[in-house]
Amino acid sequence: MKDFVKYLLATLCGFFIAGLCLFVGGILSLACVMSAEPSAPSIQPHSALRLTLNGELLEDTPDDPLGELLGSSYPTLSQKSILSAIRAAKENADIEGIYIEAQDLFGAAPAMLREIREALADFKESGKYIIAYGDHYTQGCYYVCSVADRIILNPQGQVNWCGMASQPMFYKDLLEKVGVRMQVFKVGSYKSAVEPFTATEMSEANREQVTSYLNDIWRTMLADVAESRHLDTARLNAYADSMLTFSPAEELVAKGMVDTLCHIDGVSRLLRDKTGKTEGMLPLVTVKELAAATPQSKGKDGKIAIYNAYGDIVEKRAEWDGDVIDAEKVCRDLKALRENEAVKAVVLRVNSGGGSAYASEQIWHEVKLLREAKPVVVSMGGMAASGGYYISCAADYIVAEPTTLTGSIGIFGLIPDASELLREKLGLHFDVVKTNAHADFGTPSRPFNPSEARMMQGYIQRGYELFIGRVAEGRKMETDEVKQLAEGRVWTGRQAVENGLADAQGGLQTAIREAARRAKLENYGTEYGPAPAPWYENLFGNIQKDYLNSSLRETLGSYYAPLMNLERIRHMDFLQARMPYEPNFIN
What we know:
By secondary structure, the chain is an alpha/beta fold. The protein has 2 domains: 47-162 and 243-293, 2-enoyl-CoA Hydratase, Chain A, domain 1, CATH 3.90.226; 172-200 and 296-579 and 581-585, 2-enoyl-CoA Hydratase, Chain A, domain 1. The chain is built from 22 helices and 23 strands. The strands form 6 sheets. Strands 10, 13, 15, 16, 17, 19, 20 and 21 form an 8-stranded mixed sheet that branches. The longest helix is centred in the N-terminal third of the chain and has 34 residues, at 2-35. The termini are far apart. The model is unreliable at 33-38 and 539-545 (pLDDT under 50).
């Protein structure tokens, strides 16, 4: 019997080890296959670019062939890849049009949507067609698709058109219930990042700024849709007030919001007519296929580097951080670009609501050094506010979309006092022996005393004055001028151009052309950075992290970002240059 058990366990162990070896070997083989350079696909004549708007729109996403193979539970879209594909489709003679599949597009800042829409409008200048189809259109998706020659809706479909809202979440009462009080230090009457922790509703100053930028963004969206759909803005506003979402599809045609009602098979027939394909598979090309088939221009005069900086600004990336601007790495990369003689100009693409003021200062310094060596132009994405504006203001020139959120020049500190939680809720008691008055400064077991609070406020004030000085230097403005625009106030890109915080309205291509002009380049190539790490690095850790993040995002929806801010507080520096809060647009 003992021998039987022994042989059985040995056999099971053998099967387990063999299975593990096969699994690891399979993963390594898959890595080798997927890492190999694919042969460039050929584009058939009379093809159309298939643009599927489904998932969360991000500034950029790394290649994830394993996720594509296994099926990702939380789809993401790369704005960079979409914009590149639209430009390539315009220049490719075999691409005759774009077919947009409108599904569930969410999480996109208004400026990101507008940049895609503007790229589609530019595509139409070539005389090529754009057709959009959706079973239902989210408002952001409809805004992008409204530029199409023909908008098609399922006969039982919907168009969400209801205006915009911003709904911040307040944690004050929740924190009080668990015995935590936030100690707040800030400069700027509009610097309302601390409000969710100290109040249960928006301050009047914050309500004023949110009302201002929200209405400005909505006016831009109304004007864009009105122009494309040949409707006036007053009528579109009335449609939003009437909650057009629940209108019958036939009424949406009558009101000019869509052109045609049909099922997906009807779209196939329409595309066949457009492409001249009477049988077989429709020649539709994906974003990834078009990228693989499009050669990169080298440029004989040199190259322009486009450096992406998106996410929270941190001193150094933590193990579980997602998309962050890692100051340590960014400074290294910018130094390398400064010393690279082949790079004649740099476009810094910023999409960030800020973060660590110290980290922002380090990046600002490196951008300033880079500017002394070659032209630096900033392209602002969805937002470039607070720390995002801090790292931008040292550039030669700033380009922003009219709906970009920017400015928010202000500083705050947020330090939790958990003494009540520890003492009253958990029954923990503390005593201390110290050699100096403030040796136990910052411990969660007690709040700041009045002397420490004054010192902390002075520290915040010095950070604010430094921020003001950096903006004044970079924008060639008087300090008093900057102070009039600061106080933590958030502006739209259009407002920023008017008040001098930005130079021009436009997207990434506008910034690239300006960089080329300043570097006196006519025949140039472009190079994007930083290069993403290979997908197979830290494969198992990433699978676990992505699974957890995907599950949380799917469960929490629009509440994911604000609730994650609670977790980030544990890792925040004392000094923060950060947006008022997660904008949390409802659109």
